[in-house]
Fold:
Amino acid sequence: MLLSLSTLAAAAILPAAPVPVPAPEETPSEATSIATAREAGSDARISERIGGIFSELPGIEGVTVRAEEGVVTLSGTVRSAEAATRAEAIAARVQGVVTVENRIERDVTIDGGLGLSGLGGRLNGFIRLLPLVGAAIIAGLVITGIGYLIASLTGVWRRVAPNAFLAELIASAIRFVFVIGALVVALDIIGAGALLGAVLGGAGVIGIALGFAMRDTIENYVASLMLSLRQPFRPNDHVLIDAHEGRVIRLTSRATILMTLDGNHLRIPNSAVFRAVILNYTRNPQRRFDFRLGIDADDDPDAARALGRDVLGALPWVLDQPPPEARVVEVGDSNIVLNFLGWVDQQETDWFKARSRAIARVKKALEEAGFALPEPIYRLRFDQRSSPLPLANVGPTSQSEPRRPPGQSAGQQPPSRPPAVRTPTSEAHREEDVRPANEIARMVDDERSAGSAERDLLDPARPVE
Structure:
């Protein structure tokens, strides 16, 4: 307790020690302020320092530097505006520089602007680069040769791919990949990776533009690939593609070639064939024909149907299974329309001939059985209030005297005509000749056997989709 009192007394007598106060922090404006006094010879040191830096940098080594009161003035000529900007930035970073006055001008002379003075150096650098360029070319050629060698193994790719067209497409893709790889390796060897990026970027933009411009061509090429895979028909098949009918000659990488039924060549783009509805008459040898005949409204349609079925069933070229059929399809104002149907084997019977012969046979049988095949009836109405038409050129005729042909006198008998001579045997033979007409099929076979520069993508060994 005594120690504490003495300590308090001493503290009251002694003066208090000063407490240190932290110095105020400099603001950015005060740190960058211009000093009021300068050291002697600072301008000379600034000029010497900046000039020494410029002398070591190509392109700005000829710039003149002058410093007064910390203001640096740059003058002279350079080859580009970028060099002048660079010189100003370097001078502003030297300690003691208040500001920079940039009076550098660009050299617009031919030698200075184009840099012909450094052409020799560039040429020497290119000559030193030639061995590396040669190595890059050799590496690129080796890689490209390997790609072409792999792509040339057509037997392998044809075993892998379902058809020759796809095998050729795989070989082309392999060649393209190896060529791009060779280009990448060659540019990487000579250190031109940035150039490769620019080339590939430009190629991508050009590819997009060409894709839009050649959209139809690309669509047709893809359709050719799909048709070669699907194989929708065989050579010499009788097909109907939308409104185009004919026999197939070949399928190429651009179009499907048909021979129409009148012997003309027809080329349909594969893109249209791929989207079209294809009707193949050759796939099923059995084919049905039909035709319509009208009988009088007072006749019995059931009896006419039965008679027509019997006549069709008696024809030797009409198949028993499926059996012939007759249907009532319409009852008109003055007739009843019947539809007769029958089946034929297209390998043994021509469809057009069979239909034509069947129409004639059924029509004749109906007429012989007493069924009337009525013609269109028109009613003419004469208004009694209208005046009769003038018949100035018509002479008076009587109902008892028929009109005479020109050149025949009164009382003269008309010349008699010889009776028509018929040959039933020859007509029957022609009617029974319903064998298939193979003229167009033979023309297609001759066309295919003659060969063509265009490759046929149809493969008879593959199944039809």
In short: Confidence is low (pLDDT under 50) at residues 1-31, 397-407, 414-430.
